[in-house]
Amino acid sequence: QVQLVESGGGLVQAGGSLRVSCAASGRTSSGYILGWFRQAPGKEREFVGRISWSGACTVYAETVKGRFTISRDNAKNTVYLQMNSLKPEDTAVYYCAGDVVGPSGYHYCGPSRYDYWGQGTQVTVSS
Question: What is the mean pLDDT of each run of 10 residues along the chain (127 residues)?
């Protein structure tokens, strides 16, 4: 129903920046909340942040607040995760996850089930 594909991962030096993207396809007309998650080897998946369908609201984990920014371009059905001041601890596979919302969920920015997940993109921060 909703397919998500991450891209843009790669290797970056500590202190550097990287932008990863999440392209959505399928049933996107009704809108969707999108969250970013990451998982490092040996660790459980953790929440990074999320953005409302409207884009007016974002929520970030404390560990990335001030360094990461989520934005979206609904015309392109793409959500971005801009990562600045990267640290080696940010090394992980980054996943985007979506939850379809109805018209009433235009500004919804709360927790979601995240029924749809992408395949992940590897982000490696050296140093």
Answer: 94 98 85 95 96 96 98 94 98 96 92 94 97
